[in-house]
Amino acid sequence: MLIWSDNKKLPQSLHDELINRIHENYKNKEEFFSSYHESGEIFADIIVPYYGNLIEEIMKDLGLWSRTQYEYNLWVQMYNSETTTHDIHEHFTGREIISFNHIIDASNNKCFYFLNDNGDKIYPEHQDSGDIFAWSPWLVHGVDKVKEPNTTRLIVAGNVWLNRYDAPNARTLTCSGNINNDHEDVIWNVTYKREQNDIVKRDLFSVPVFELKVDLDKLILPSAEVAPIPDTTLQYLSSLVSSALNTLQDKFDTLEFDMIWRNNYKTKSDYQGYHIHAKTHWSFIIYESVERSRTVFCNPSHKEVQNQSLYESSLDMPLTYHADYFKSGDMILFPSWLAHHVPAGNLGTTISGNIILKSNNQKTSGAKYCQTYSNQDSHYM
User: What is the number of other CB atoms lying within 10 angstroms of the CB of residue 308?
Assistant: First the structure.
């Protein structure tokens, strides 16, 4: 699991100064000491010169030095048998490319471990004083408790994150977003240096559609034709929908449900014709009791494609998308203007709804009620 390793003894003067500053700033002796949340200010002036050169060495050894623009952060941690230890975690937030751990003073037992997919602990072989190793930041890892008394485990750790990466195949990746802000979006942009004979294919005007899992037990919808929906149901749906829509670049402040209803397919001749959900932003379908979905989405430019395509049914520019793989407890969230229909042949119920997004300078009103549609309402044109 390691991508780089070495053994480097820290200069004694630097080691002693680390210990002195830890003792000056160590408040809660029951917790392991960490300067991670101090932004490196306690130790920056003494560790940046040493580890800046070390990180440069790692980047050169991995062939990344000349092809990247990077930054890094550093922190100091110290453990002993009387303190807590570091539970499993990872370092990846979207920009990190390398994480490393330099063991300044080692304990007798190997403490650092990775977790594999089975939950097994994998201990790097060399964990003596001076050992330094690097790994991919998304690997889950943790630290066992120091076993022997009167022994201190001292480490310096760090992450290297990218601002720019120049790939050998003429791609350049640049990143925007604040690495120190957990709430900041990290966006990678890819540009290509095109040679004279290069062919680049791009898919323009993609339509974002989300597939989610729903806990049906949390959906309490009244049986009456028109009735209020419990706040707990609305809050659950709002949280679910927000988690998906917040991954988009177009931001919103709040959302409201304009309408929520149940579609009841009582016979296999029931269907829904071609339609959109007008005057709303997003819509959803929750597959409640149907054995399998039969929703068909239509290419927004299907008329133009059908009229001007070489083939009646184009493989490169299909006219429809058959979302026929959803089962009970699945949900699909899509832009309300995306036309769709439901062919005959299904039995059971689905739950549908419309969503209106709001910004601080725009007001909309949402109706918080549920309509239970009859059999007739499940085969309209």
Answer: 9
Tokens 């990143």 -> residue: 175
CA distance 169 to 183: 32
Q: Which CATH architecture best describes the domain 210-378?
A: Sandwich (2.60)
Residues of the chain with CATH 2.60.120.620: 2-192, 210-378
d(CA 266, CA 348): 7
Write down the CATH number for the domain with range 2-192: 2.60.120.620
DSSP string, 91-140: --SSSEEEEEEEEEE--SS--EEEE-TT--EE--S--STTEEEEE-TTS-
Two structure tokens written together for 199:
């062919």
Residue 316: which of 307, 325, 305 has the closest Cα?
305
Q: List all residues 6 or more positions away from 47 whose beta carbon is below 8 Å from its beta carbon.
A: 14, 18, 40, 74, 76, 156
Tokens of 77: 């941690």
- Angle ∠(38,39,43) on CA atoms, nearest 5: 80
Q: Hey, which of 150-164, 183-197, 214-228 has the most confident mean pLDDT?
A: 150-164
pLDDT-above-90 percentage for the chain = 67
Mean pLDDT of the chain: 88
User: Which CA distances in Å does 26 have to 69, 111, 350?
Assistant: 35, 22, 58
